[in-house]
Amino acid sequence: MAAILLLGGLGRSQGYWAGVVDHGITGVLALAAAAFAGTVLTPLLLPWLPGRAFAVKGVVIGLPLVLGTLALRSPDIGAQWKSLEVVGWLLVGTALAAFLAMNFTGASTYTSLSGVRKEMRFAVPLQIAAAGVGLIMWLGSLWLPGGGS
Amino acid sequence: MTGLVYLADVVTLQLDQELCIGCGTCEIVCPHAVFQMTDGLAEVRDRNACMECGACALNCETEAITVRSGVGCASAVISESLGRTDSCCRAVDDSTTA
Fold it and tell me: What percent of chain A has pLDDT over 90?
């Protein structure tokens, strides 16, 4: 998170520290919301979250929470570069929430090893892809018109 | 029983009724009530409730039950796929694998 905070200031025409406050904190808040969704809300709401796979439960709670956090943080979502940044963090945050939620399979009393293996076979590649694409989108938002401002 | 059910049709639990002598131990040791005794023989009542703990296979005198047991834990599966053999969290416990 500290790295994201510091990276947030790079290449911004508004100046490094203003970039950290604007873009860095946006990223940190998205990650914090994702961590909260995956590690606190998923186990707390486990029986009521839809989906059998824990990663699906993590997405169900993580996606709206990260989106809500980003919407509060970036009301001017209309600008093209801004939407790229928001969608990027939405992908990274949702992937993180799904991964953290998936780790609670070991703490539950009803998951089986074969089931966890099956869940991970489809969930882990998607999580890695979403996080990778999301980070690239966030970095890419720097080069779009207005992104460096 | 919590009523929570994980992914359907994935468990490796197998019961060979030909070998069953009807002792009823599997029904007693199973934490999720997967087995029930019907006409003096064990029967799989709720296959998807199985968490592959291996208690039934370990306690079955005639080895009528087999299951690839282990802990259903994502971090254990990650440790295993990364080849970490020194990790305390391992996906498969060989001692109860039947």
Answer: 58
Residues of B in contact with A114 (CB under 8 A): 10-12, 52, 68, 72
What is the reported pTM? 0.86
Mean pLDDT in chain B? 86
Cα dihedral angle (B48, B50, B52, B53), rounded to 10 degrees? Answer: 160
In this prediction, residue A26 carries a pLDDT of 87
The C-alpha angle B53, B57, B62, rounded to 5 degrees, equals: 175
User: Token pair 């699906």 is at which residue?
Assistant: A56
Note the pLDDT of residue B2. 53
CB contact under 8 A, A109 and B77: no
* Facing residue for B5 by CB, picked from A52, A54, A106: A52
CATH 3.30.70.20 fits B14-96, yes or no: yes
Domain ranges of chain A: 29-140
Are the Cβ atoms of A120 and B69 closer than 8 angstroms?
no
Output the six-digit token pair for A26: 């946006």
Q: What is the mean pLDDT of residues B70-83?
A: 86
